[in-house]
Write a structure and sequence with these properties.
Blueprint lengths: L1 H15 L18 E10 L4 E10 L2 E9 L4 E10 L3 E10 L34
Antiparallel strand pairs: 1-2, 2-3, 3-4, 4-5
Length: about 130
């Protein structure tokens, strides 16, 4: 155990002294004009989650749009751009949803009203002893 500790501390001392070169991570190549484009859609009719996004980048300019269904039943659409000169700019607009699907609600079960049996009133007869 002490031999392993001695070897470990010796290697650390040699690395700090510059006698053993430390591993160097490769450096990513600099891309002066980055380009990318992506898009996604979520359409979940079970939960009512509908949203989408599209974005592209060319150099320092980013352009995109995303949309989401708000709780009030309208579609919020955001168009945005971003660049080093003008910064981030967004334009938000609302649009009515064309195909509104009403939620599926099961009808309430029909329970018959309880029937009350009608009973004739009991009228006592006069009792005669003679």
């Amino acid at each position: 155990m002490t031999l392993m500790f001695f070897i470990f501390t010796t290697l650390i001392a040699l690395a700090r002294g510059g006698l053993i070169a430390a591993p160097v991570a490769p450096v990513a190549k600099f891309v002066p004009s980055p380009l990318y484009s992506f898009a996604y859609d979520v359409k979940d009719s079970l939960t009512g989650d509908f949203k989408s996004q599209v974005e592209t980048r060319s150099g320092g300019v980013v352009r995109g749009q995303y949309s989401v269904i708000d709780p009030d039943g309208t579609k919020r659409i955001v168009d945005y751009t971003a660049d080093p000169i003008h910064g981030f700019n967004a334009v938000v607009r609302k649009a009515p949803i064309v195909n509104v699907v009403p939620p599926v609600v099961a009808p309430a079960p029909v329970v018959p009203a309880p029937t009350l049996a009608r009973v004739a009133p009991v009228i006592p007869r006069p009792v005669s002893f003679f």
